[in-house]
Amino acid sequence: MTAPPDTIHFNQTYLNYQYEYNGFPTILAIVPWIYMLPTIYVIFKITAVLFTTDWDQVEAGKNPHVLLVITLVQISCFLFFLFNYLLVRLPATGLFTSWCAGIAPNSWLLVVSFLASYTNYLAMIYPLFMPVVRLIILIHPKAHGKENSSSTPHIAKFHCQLNYMHSKINTIIMYIAVPFGIIYPILFTFFLIPAIGVCKQLEFPYPFGSIWIYYVGPAFGLRNTPFFLGNLSVWLGLSCIANVLLFIKIAHAREQLFTQQTSGVSYKAQVSITYTTIAMIVFYVTNGLTLLSYYLFYGTHSIMAYTMLARPFGNDAQACLVSWIFYKTHPVFKKVPVTNGAFERRVATA
């Protein structure tokens, strides 16, 4: 079988390649696990709260839709990290260079490339729904049980209607958002279906033997990068608009939201989610800048070609920053003393 051009398959030089420490590619493959392993634990904790909380119990700041969005964002970001790691970081070490040179291009290699692209789109889409869900909550503010106890029956009934309204709207949004996020990436990855996966030598500044997984023979000769840049621009723009509207609404409703709360829990939850929402924008900015630099300078000897080394860490920022900011600032993960001197986890508030 003849190997496609510009690949390492059946190339005798790569077949004879023997792994040895190759400097920064090996370091770039090891360092991420220093922060990703504890982040996986945090993602598990966040996901566990979503499935173990009694959402029928009314409490200040408590909202399952917000936590669902955060969980979707974290899972999609981790999956993107995993498949991107298999796509570039691990092969770049040279551990599998000789093995890959000895096999023919195949569909299993394509699966890695396809899933890296697919999960990248997932990581773009779901963060938008965080400000959207929160806007619905602010437009139809939720009334809490403790505050209702001192209300007249008419006011209490009105509060119940508001609670039902924003919950119903957000439920509909999430029923649409979850399948939309799953289906949407196919619109920009379908051209990979007839392609085949290959191994290629990474260009400057990577040394000889550092490879990555790519594809050849896509439908209509299409490439991923223009679609990525276009989608990043669209989702970043929509996210910025939604967040600006959200912060304007928060500013107008600050007194109602914060100063009139019977407990500091709701305030802490709102602040935590605001920090988390802002952190989600980091992914768009870092990924967009590094992807643009890659598109313009990859393979050249420009100093800008080194930004490809930083791109994976920009991608990691969303999974780590969002997880840790939410975990360290949200009251759901705080322990509060109870009467017998023990500690218990505060009921989830999101």
UniProtKB/TrEMBL annotation:
Pfam families in UniProt: 7TM_GPCR_Sru (PF10322)
Transmembrane helix listed as a keyword: yes
Membrane found in the keyword field: yes
Keywords: Membrane, Transmembrane, Transmembrane helix
Transmembrane segments: 24-44, 65-88, 172-198, 204-222, 234-253, 273-298
Entry-linked PANTHER family: SERPENTINE RECEPTOR, CLASS U (PTHR46045:SF6), SERPENTINE RECEPTOR, CLASS U-RELATED (PTHR46045)
Protein's UniProt name: Serpentine receptor class gamma
Species of provenance: Caenorhabditis nigoni
Lineage of producing organism: Eukaryota, Metazoa, Ecdysozoa, Nematoda, Chromadorea
